Amino acid sequence: MNLLEIEGKRLFIDYGIPVPEGVLSRGGAVSLPFGFPAVVKAQAPTGGRGRAGGVRIVRDKAELESAVREIIGMNIGGHAVTDVLIERKVESRKELYVSIAVDRSKRKPLIIASEVGGMDIESAPEDRIIRDWIDPWVGIQPFMLRRFILGLGLGKESSGQFRAIIQGVWRLFQDMDAELVEINPLIMTDGGRLIAADSKVVIDDDSLFRHEELRRSTAREMTDLESIARDEEIAFVQLEGDIGVIANGAGLTMATLDLLTSSGGKGGAFLDLGGTDDPEKVKCAVLLMAKAKPKVVLLNIFGGITKCDTVASGLLQAYNEGDLDFPIVARIKGVNEDEAVAMLKGSKMKATLSLKEAVKAAVEIASGG
Ligand code: GDP
Ligand code: MN
User: Fold this and answer.
1) Which of 292, 194, 198, 291 is nearest to 239 (CA)?
2) Would the pTM count as exceeding 0.90?
3) Which residue positions in the chain have pLDDT lower than 50?
């Protein structure tokens, strides 16, 4: 999960990493507790805001007001901007880059730093990028910090601050189960002060149960139905298409979506029943799917732990209780498949043992055929 810049910066403050003074605005009248020039920044959980026009430097009240107005309502990387962060503009001599990220190939956290940070960091030449890997049992060693300080050409006035910032980033990275903590740019002022002008923090989704404090942020990345699903502990994702997909197991669910796509269908909401032998859970899943208003639902079950007749009985219950106005085409195979197909006979569901047939039928129904 990507945190917003402001959320990352609040963490920075907790970990002793200096950030510019700032206020958050949702578009109402703002009075700045600091003077101009200021920077107005779109809060969207994505990078490249600068290039998308979501970061503007303003010199007076009129410019501020029009920048706030123009940025709120922008859409950056698929995210509607509702909030802007207004900060005191920090005078910059140099823009550095600093990050700690998980390096999967080395199985260690990797520190990257560069003296050519800013918006074009992707094109920084290799010889101006410094890397080192942290042994998580040992932490950051003084010699590593000396190498970074030397490589970045930091003078006396900045090196102590740099050490504190890296240690802060490292502690934050560990405490918050981060996959990435990035400061770009880390601004160096004329006096050699270091200030984090931007934050990018990515939290490992699988650790969120440990971070109750981030619950509000996680809700932001989910649709309403996805949050309901999370509360009901159903693995549910909403896509743009009109064909709902229900399968059991993440692999089968993904394979079903792939097959649907290659057959000309468009996957809508999909959900993974996982391993369950409880018809009630199947019923809840189908009723949740109904709220996503699919044109048709493609159900693909490979019975094992999840028995086919359990699924069939859950489906029938859903049809009886809910006012389902979409057809379901089901491919049901595996443990107790014959019972399942027999149970569904005579219902509004079309059950088959062939996946190809089921996919074909779903695509035809969705395209109005
Ligand atoms: P991003 O494009 O989403 O990474 O947004 P950033 O927060 O990094 O802002 C883009 C660029 O705006 C930065 O690389 C800086 O060059 C510039 N910028 C942002 N805040 C400040 C500031 O306080 N002072 C100065 N001098 N430049 C800033
Ligand atoms: Mn940035």
Assistant:
1) 292
2) no
3) none
